[in-house]
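From the pipeline queue, job 12 of 40. The input is one protein chain; the requested action is below.

Action: predict structure.
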Amino acid sequence: MLLATFKLCAGSSYRHVRNMKGLRHQAVLAIGQELTRRAQGEPAPGVWINQVRRRSSLLGSRLEEPLYSDQELAYIQQGEEAMQKALGILSDQEGWKKESQQANGDKVLSKVVPDVGKVFRLEVVVDQPMDRLYEELVDRMEAMGEWNPNVKELKVLQKIGRDTVITHELAAEAAGNLVGPRDFVSVRCAKRRGSTCVMAGMATHFGDMPEQKGIIRAEQRPTCMVLHPLAGNAAKTKLTWLLSIDLKGWLPKTIINQVLSQTQMDFANHLRKRLESNPASEAHC
C-alpha cells in the first residue's frame, strides 16, 4: 500500500496526477503520520480505537474527495490530529480517578496528562441505538442549544468535505455565574469505522469569527466522543466523552474541575431527555 501510494505521489506512472493540486500533499501527509506512528512504537489500542485509526482507510477516503485549498487541508489535518491525540489519551487505561458517579451508572473519571493538563472522561450507556445518537450529535449539532442549557448557540461556520466542519459555540454562564460566558471556535471531524463512530475536535483560528466583546475566547484541547453499540444489545449505545478545555481567565482550579465534571453529567441527562422527547428520524450515520 505504501509503495503504491509513493508511486502515485511521484507521478512516475500517472502524468496527469502531477497536475492535481493537493493530492500528493494529502497522500504524503497520511504516509508520514503512519510512519511516525510506527517509529514511535505506540501501544496497541483497543479494537474500537484501532478501527478508526486505520491509515489506509484514511488515505483511501482522501483520494476520493475533491481537491482543497491549503487552508482547508490545514483544517482537515488539524481535525485528524485532534482525533489521534484524543484517542491516544483514551487508549491509556492507567491513572484514571473517579470524580463522580450516578445511581444509573453514569460516571466521570479524570487524570492529568503530561503537556495537556487535566482531562475528564464521561462514560454512560444510553437506551438508544448508535445511529440515533450520531444523528443528534453530528447531523443536527446546530440544534444543541435547543436541548442543552449549557450551550446558548452552536453554528457551523464552514463545512469541508464529508467529515470536517468549523464551528462556533457560545457557552452559558456556569457555577452560579462565577464562570462568565465563553465561546469556542473549533475544527471538528466525524468518522465511522465499522461499528464505531468518533467525533473529535480542537480549537482553531477562523478569520471570519474574531473574539467578541464581553466574551472570553476559551480553547478546546484535543477532545473526542466515541459511540459504539453496547456489547450484546445493539439497541443501546456506550458513549465515552473525553473533555479537555482551557477556560482562560482567572479561575481557581477547584471551580474549573467542578464545572467541567458537572458539564459532562448534565450533558448525559439532557441528551437522554432530548432523545426521549424526539422520536428517531431517518439516521444518516
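Job complete. Helices lie at 2-10, 23-40, 47-52, 55-64, 70-91, 130-139, 144-147, 253-277.
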